[in-house]
Sequence to fold (258 residues):
Amino acid sequence: MHLEKYCASGNDFLITHHFKPSNRQALAKELCNRHYGFGADGLVILLPHPQHAYTWEFYNADGSLANMCGNASRCVGLYAYLQGLAPKKHSFLSGAGVIALEVLEVAQSGGVVQSNLGSPKWLDTLDIEGQEWVLINSGVPHLVHFVEHLSEIPKAKTPQMQALRQQFNANVNVAYIKDPQTIHLATYERGVEDITLACGTGMGAVFFAALKRGVENTAHCIPPSGEVLSLSLEGTSVLFSGAVKRVGPVIDYCNTLC
Fold:
């Protein structure tokens, strides 16, 4: 199994392609372990598909399956293009449906990729401990809460984030709208069980919720990684673009779990 490591906005993934689907949850836990493995937020296996460029198996670092991951979608888009598996503009099938991608730029160390996250669904508005939270599905479920000051965005996971993640089985986002074109946020992700440097579907959910608070149809989201991501609304779909880094090949790796 030839693995490549890619990173988008601080989210890092081990990516490979295979001909047959399989249960690779144990393999994902082994490879993604930061101390005893190669270390990553997730493992992605690209598989053949009759209607689309490919489909995927997406595993979080703890081995759990996820339907969608925005940053991973941008990473696999560049991987598939560089591996000759797909043209610059293509689509693939995720657990959340068909995802359209376009590789906008290619550089020696990576490129810029745009992913269509589809049409987010506003599921509920909630009063939790006197705070307004909204529950949005942007490929996976996300809770979103807006704060009044940038300093209120947590830099480390909080007991409230952990409790809400368990209660709603959703990712948890705290965001601050700096101006109509700029949003700062932090996302506590399922499967990683911590605040990550960035979360693509989290940015999609926060941007979608922020549209009701006066944010413009094209805006920038800034996650803890500090990288600036561009999000825009096209019809009912959220487009998400930013830089992708090809870290490099990991190893030809195989054991009985492959």
